[in-house]
Amino acid sequence: MLISLICLTQAVPLFLSEIAPAHLRGGLNILFQLNVTIGILVAELVNYGALKVKPWGWRISLSLAGVPGVILTLGSFLLVETPNSLVERGYIEEAKSVLRRIRGTDNIHAEFEDLVEASNTAKQVKHPFRNLIKRRNLPQLVITCCLQFFQQFTGINAIMFYAPVIFKTLGFGNDASLYSSVITGGVNVLSTLVSVYSVDKIGRKMLLLEACVQMFISQVAIAILLAHGFKDGQTTLPTSSAIPVVVLICVFVSAFAWSWGPLGWLIASEIFPLETRSAGQSVTVCVNMVFTFVIAQAFLSMLCSFEYGIFLFFASWVVIMGLFTIFFIPETKGIPIEEMEMVWRQHWFWKKIVPDDMPGHGATNEKALELKNVKVAPGEVA
């Protein structure tokens, strides 16, 4: 099951980014994260119901986990190959046919030429993983690794994994703690819908920055409430403090769900060139899994040691995330995936890293970016 999850996490964002038109790529890609959040919510509801079936309710919960696997297996037979993949393997006419079908028009010449050019460049690369550490790919590698690291150090998985424990500590009973974790799952789904709607309108960078402010405020407020509520050696919070803490946790979850949650996968899947795209996504998944494991193993011990300070610990990382976003993450909204190279040459910092002979920086691509009215944040353009 874990291997299947890793494969899907690597393949699905890439697949969606490659077939989506540039102006809808963000929203379509985040549908992946939306379905993940729906799955989490459904799992919480199933677990809540199975808890009432004794003594074998856990068998119901475990066996129903196979249903999504069956749906995914059957659905995979209905998928088409991406034009990028077909061109790279030499199926030129089939690639044209698929591109016409998914774009709904015969006017695909310019986009198809970009795919062919990217494929020709990709064929010259014999060792994609070795190529990842070359200067040309360092911006993408650094950003994707940092996004996955920061995604976990927001504290989201710690909260989602241990929501029942947290809510029980806040004074809720066993059933109420599970019910409260279902509430966070519902907030997760609704907030991801916000991201689907807004990511291609206001851009990736604005969502990341807004979420940093919202997560920082909510985590600091939670720490203050917990410090005040447990100051006299109490083992549970009074209702006057517990309810605001639950609300603030939902505020935190909503901020993550429309920003660092889906955008960590979206940005990683759209910024690598074709020749290192699969290798880059593999590294992205690996980094995510490593730090998911680290946080999952460390959180309970940190909670016992830091107590309310655990939220200040994660809040400090949110500040670092915000600064990293301001200075090092460029806006990629509306830029065709095969023309992403120009983003690095226009960025105030990354243009010092990428080589001057980097492919795809001629007048054609400059004009393409102008025609798409790409807006680059102040301070990012030379």
Q: What does this entry show, briefly?
A:
It is found in: Membrane. The protein has 382 residues and is mostly helical. It has helices at 2-19, 25-50, 57-64, 66-76, 83-88, 92-103, 109-123, 128-131, 138-153, 156-161, 163-169, 174-202, 204-229, 239-257, 260-271, 277-306, 309-328, 341-346, 363-371.
Assign the structural class, choosing from mainly alpha, mainly beta, alpha/beta, alpha+beta, or little secondary structure.
mainly alpha
First and last CA, distance: 47 Å
The gyration radius over C-alpha positions equals: 22 Å
**Proportion of residues in extended strands:** under 5%
Helix content: over 70%
Largest sheet, strands/sense/barrel: none
Detail the poorly predicted runs: 360-382
Q: Which series of helices and strands comes N to C?
A: HHHHHHHHHHHHHHHHHHH
Keywords: Membrane, Sugar transport, Symport, Transmembrane, Transmembrane helix, Transport
GO cellular component, one term: membrane
Pfam family, one: Sugar_tr
GO molecular function: monosaccharide transmembrane transporter activity; symporter activity
Structure description:
By secondary structure, the chain is mainly alpha-helical. It is 73% helix and 0% strand. It contains 19 helices and no strands. The chain has helices spanning 2-19, 25-50, 57-64, 66-76, 83-88, 92-103, 109-123, 128-131, 138-153, 156-161, 163-169, 174-202, 204-229, 239-257, 260-271, 277-306, 309-328, 341-346, 363-371. It is globular, with a radius of gyration of 22 Å. It starts with a helix and ends in an 11-residue tail after the last helix.
